[in-house]
């Protein structure tokens, strides 16, 4: 996590370093919406941009904590904010680039509501997701993390390398925020960007929740197995001209053939894995025009597919 010394917006993002997330967790596909918030909270809430499908905003850390506590009591499961490390792990989705879709900011408008927002939030899920299927993980509203914010917590590399939780004590910075928001420039939407709430609420402060994985739950076990079997990840997407398509580790031994179709369903190309030992494919679309393509592979009697966007 973090930014290299050669590419940071704020010094507190540095240095880039390796962190291990040792425990599986579920993360919300979308930011918590206003209708979801009102279904759990008993007190009224005023919004800057009302709309049932718009993300909840004008939150402070205490209200987020209260929402998670109430939802935990209702479901009997532990619902919480992600740690900053968990959030960045989920946002990056296996990438090491500035954004989860690559290093260039040009395609940000396809994924995030920031400078393109028109000065307002937008209903969740309208733009493209990251490679792990998380929508609005950048832009729309800042997302609270459970960590207290510190400018130096990661800089001296004294923070834990396994499941860092943030500083023990809170100072004037308040809580950590990640992801950028509707009124922020693109640099704040980078995976490593960090901000803080000054212990205040804000019209661009929202949340995305985490559900702790229960190893004793058959529902969790089946969902994790199904998700692992069906995983097909594409990065960067949009792309030009090369894209890496990866199947989950469960499918690596099967080593199926990947087929590329155009938007009209015509088979354009057959791509073999980079090596027999993995299920990683690289498609070079230099000879194809811009447009939508479909990556398709048959695995164990199931058909997996993903939409690819070639932008030249």
Automatic annotation (TrEMBL):
Pfam family, any one: FGE-sulfatase
GO MF terms held by the record: formylglycine-generating oxidase activity
Every Sulfatase-modifying factor enzyme-like domain range: 2-210
InterPro entries the record matches: CTDL_fold, Secre_tail, Sulfatase_Mod_Factor_Kinase, SUMF_dom, SUMF_sf
Highest taxon above the source species: Bacteria
Protein name per Swiss-Prot or TrEMBL: Sulfatase-modifying factor enzyme-like domain-containing protein
Lineage of the species this protein comes from: Bacteria, Raymondiibacteriota
């Amino acid at each position: 996590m973090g930014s290299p010394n050669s590419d940071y917006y704020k010094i507190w993002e540095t240095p880039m370093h390796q962190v291990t997330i040792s425990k599986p967790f579920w993360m919300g596909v979308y930011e918590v919406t206003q209708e979801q918030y009102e279904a759990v909270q008993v007190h009224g809430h005023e919004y800057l941009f009302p709309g049932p499908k718009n993300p909840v905003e004008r939150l402070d850390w205490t209200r987020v904590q209260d929402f998670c506590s109430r939802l935990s009591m209702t479901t009997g499961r532990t619902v919480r904010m992600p740690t900053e490390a968990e959030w960045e792990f989920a946002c990056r989705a296996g990438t090491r680039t500035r954004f989860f879709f690559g290093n260039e900011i040009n395609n940000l408008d396809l994924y995030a509501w920031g400078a393109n927002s028109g000065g307002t939030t937008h209903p969740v899920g309208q733009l493209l997701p990251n490679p792990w299927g998380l929508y609005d993980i950048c832009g729309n509203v800042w997302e609270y993390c459970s960590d207290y914010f510190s400018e130096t917590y990661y800089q001296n590399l004294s923070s834990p390398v396994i499941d860092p939780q943030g500083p023990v004590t809170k100072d004037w910075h308040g809580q950590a925020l990640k992801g950028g928001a509707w009124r922020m420039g693109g640099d704040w939407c980078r995976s490593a960007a960090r901000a803080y709430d000054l212990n205040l609420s804000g019209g661009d402060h929202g949340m995305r929740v985490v559900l702790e994985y229960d190893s004793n739950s058959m529902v969790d076990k089946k969902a994790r197995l199904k998700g692992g079997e069906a995983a097909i990840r594409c990065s960067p997407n949009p792309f030009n001209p090369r894209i890496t398509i990866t199947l989950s580790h469960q499918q690596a031994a099967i080593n199926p053939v990947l087929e590329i179709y155009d938007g009209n369903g015509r088979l354009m190309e057959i791509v073999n894995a980079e090596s027999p030992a993995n299920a990683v494919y690289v498609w070079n679309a230099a000879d194809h025009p811009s447009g939508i393509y479909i990556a398709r592979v048959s695995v164990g009697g199931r058909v997996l597919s993903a939409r690819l966007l070639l932008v030249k």
